[in-house]
């Protein structure tokens, strides 16, 4: 039985639909990442699950029991959860008292509180700051305090809203390490929102892509990244090559897609005559200085229009009669003497093409 489940959950503010028919299941001990751009509805969904807001319609189940509009005392349910906000909330008191306050509200005895707080302080590497005024610390340290206050009560469900937003890379890395430690130590069920899909990939078991108030796709990372359900998901998860075309032929699940006078071959169940998008990840494209024989069914001559450096990688933009983006290492780019205006050959396998219908349904 899922620890958290939503059924046709909707939220509306005035004339605006914030969430529409959100159906979600998160298992006990699972880490689930909600990814999506700012304004997609991620925070609104977390607030509904935490019972801070009431849904316009739909159901929320906690451990199999309906809690949306539940007659049970809200405080009793919320004590089984903890919510870490995007902007860290710290009280005007010491670091120790900030972390201990939830335990004090639960009326735990002083000895137990001291032992738990000291243990968490050591875990988050803030033992030397226990008597410091919390609001004098850095943003990253205050977020550490907020997370420590949440996990010291050992919640069944930990909700985290953009836990590293607006932090420098070093502070963000420390927060991620703390989240990972929490996962391993407590087996806590976590639902976290993030607009950083790579952060979600590092921390979560499964992902849900929330766009325009709807969960467009959910599943394991490889499923979502390699087989996006529609163009919106494909764009968000970084499929830079999304090429419009028409299925011209199909035989034994090998289809030909006409694209501006060229033909792309792909593995798909799409029917002849269907308007589709051919999705190719840049890292699945191989570049060569001359046309070579290979197992790749697709090979196109293209002229380099732009080169962008990303550390040890080079992003190569090509005009092949249609735009194409490839990703190669710095070493490969130097060995091939890649430069703007130079002609190269871009190759990719039919199995490296993911086909989605232009109507937004995944025919694969």
How would you concisely characterize the structure shown here?
26% of the residues lie in helices and 36% in strands. The protein has helices at residues 42-49, 74-78, 95-105, 110-123, 139-152, 169-186, 197-203, 221-226, 231-236, 330-335; strands spanning 4-13, 16-26, 31-35, 57-62, 65-66, 81-84, 157-161, 189-194, 206-211, 214-220, 241-251, 254-259, 262-267, 275-280, 286-288, 298-310, 313-319, 323-329, 343-348, 353-357.
Q: How does the overall form come out from the CA principal axes?
A: elongated
Number of helices: 10
Query: What would the average pLDDT be, to the nearest integer?
Result: 91
Cα gyration radius (Å): 25 Å
CA(first)-CA(last) distance: 29 Å
Q: Element order, helices and strands?
A: EEEHEEHEHHHEHEHEEHHEEEEEEEEHEE
Q: DSSP strand (E) fraction? A: 35-45%
Number of E-state strands: 20
Instruction: Summarize the biggest pleated sheet.
Output: 6 strands, mixed
Physical arrangement of strands within the biggest beta sheet: 6-7-8-3-9-10
What level of helicity do the residues show? Answer: 25-40%
Q: Structural class, from helix and strand content?
A: alpha+beta
Taking pLDDT < 50 over at least 5 consecutive residues as the criterion, the unreliable ranges are none
Summarize the structure in words.
- There is one protein chain.
- With 364 residues, the chain is α+β, with helices and mostly antiparallel strands.
- The chain has 10 helices and 20 strands.
- The strands form 4 sheets. It has a 6-stranded mixed sheet, with helices on both faces. It has a 5-stranded antiparallel sheet with strand order 13-12-11-14-20.
- Helix 3 packs parallel to helix 5 (139-152) and helix 5 (139-152) packs parallel to helix 6.
- It is elongated and about 75 Å long.
